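Quick one, probably user error.
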């Protein structure tokens, strides 16, 4: 019963909802959309998703607005990125229209799980695709299953909008220089688990990975992109191995709208000494201010926030992004899809 959910203190976790939506690609075409109440899937034990990592996923959010309307944020960008991820690991891409239709259905069918306006929580949309043909030799499947589940979530980093501490370590790479970093595929996350656990055990909320080739430049921050504010500019790494974040793209636009210059370029580790603000940004993380970055290999500590509070630019960006998604301010860039 949703009456039992304490919306304001929801963690970022899985809460069962009423329905999920599925579609299977077989004999060269996508079939009928299926609505189910089952939260398990039945696939062949030799499916390529299980053995050879043919799995991709997405993350988006839906919100209950000030006017009571439901808004999905930039879902067409998630559809596009899922298409690229599919092509990246030889999976059958889900057509954009089907992707958006199934996300819309999953949100609507689970409307009672959309957190109320003002709670700070949202409905997380997790579309994912699996290769389901049995293969023992390494080759792509010819059959695929696409599923959209939704679940109500609170903030990704504990405590919500407050400074977190992250760390740099060189012992592990999340991805290879010409690997799958720019795709949202499960294998990247498996590769990040050991580093992530070490960081959490050390009291950090995430690892700031460096570029896997030279270990000289900042890449991304656990399950989120990284940006910094420096001399009134929004700077964010340009790298082939990071996931093109839809949140980062949106914050760049909002920063430009506020009159800030935006630079997508290499950022060296040393440059952390010269920045005014830093944050991790993503669908789950929104923009989480970073107060301190410890380099575990050199022992150097970069104190970004001198007063322990989130910086003014990140605070303004966070408030602006939320206001647009909640229908409090005009959606001038056409980012929301209103679900009637
Ligand atoms: N980088 C990684 C590795 C992620 O998993 C995510 C989450 O989706 C992001 C960045 C942020 O991307 P987005 O803003 O599209 O959610
Ligand atoms: C997201 O921000 O949507 C993510 O996918 C991050 C993480 C939960 C994997």
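Nope, works fine. Designed sequence:
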């Amino acid at each position: 019963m949703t009456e039992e959910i304490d919306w304001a203190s929801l963690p970022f976790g899985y809460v069962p909802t009423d329905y999920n939506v599925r579609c299977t690609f077989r004999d060269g075409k996508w079939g009928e959309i299926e609505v189910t109440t089952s939260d398990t899937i039945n696939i062949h034990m030799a499916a390529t998703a299980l053995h050879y990592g043919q799995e991709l996923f997405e993350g988006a959010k839906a919100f209950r607005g000030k006017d009571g309307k439901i808004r999905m944020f930039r879902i067409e960008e998630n559809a596009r990125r899922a298409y690229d991820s599919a092509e990246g690991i030889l999976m059958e891409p889900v057509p954009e229209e089907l992707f958006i239709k199934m996300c819309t259905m999953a949100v609507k069918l689970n409307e009672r799980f959309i957190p109320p306006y003002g709670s700070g929580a949202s409905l997380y949309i997790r579309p994912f695709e699996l290769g389901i043909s049995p293969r023992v030799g390494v080759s792509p499947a010819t059959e695929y299953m696409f599923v959209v589940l939704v679940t109500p979530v609170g903030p990704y980093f504990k405590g919500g909008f407050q400074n977190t501490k992250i760390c740099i370590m060189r012992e592990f790479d999340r991805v290879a220089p010409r690997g799958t970093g720019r795709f949202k595929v499960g294998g990247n996350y498996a590769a990040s688990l050991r580093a992530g656990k070490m960081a959490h055990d050390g009291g950090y909320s995430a690892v700031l990975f460096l570029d896997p080739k030279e270990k000289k430049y900042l890449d991304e921050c656990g399950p989120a992109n990284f940006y910094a504010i420096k001399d009134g500019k929004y700077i964010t790494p340009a790298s082939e191995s990071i996931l093109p974040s839809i949140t980062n793209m949106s914050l760049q636009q909002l920063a430009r709208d506020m009159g800030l210059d935006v630079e997508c370029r290499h950022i060296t580790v040393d440059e952390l000494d010269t920045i005014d603000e830093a944050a991790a940004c993503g669908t789950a993380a929104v923009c989480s201010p970073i107060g301190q970055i410890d380099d575990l290999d050199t022992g150097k500590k970069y104190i970004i926030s001198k007063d322990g509070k989130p910086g003014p630019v990140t605070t303004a960006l966070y408030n602006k992004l939320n206001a647009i998604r909640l229908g409090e301010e005009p959606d001038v860039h056409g980012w929301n899809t209103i679900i009637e």
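The chain has a mean pLDDT of 97.
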